[in-house]
Amino acid sequence: MNPETIRQMIEAGLPGAVAEVAGDDGVHFEARVIFTGFAGKLPLARHRMVYATLGDKMGGEIHALSLKTQTPDEAGAR
Predict the structure, then answer these.
(1) How far apart are CA 65 and CA 60, in angstroms?
(2) Which GO biological process entries does UniProt record here (predicted)?
């Protein structure tokens, strides 16, 4: 598994999302995902939305994924 594939899966599963994914060992990754659909959702719900885009890759080909999830407004405030 590689960061680009994960990015594509997240963005395909959350249309309109922008994802940045890093990781260099093939199993541990970190991602920043910006998506309007996160508005009004708690962090756990946001993470579940991202995990759902990766399906059975989580816990298999992707051993660990550290997430930072933000709405566009939250991302712009930084």
Answers:
(1) 11
(2) DNA-templated transcription
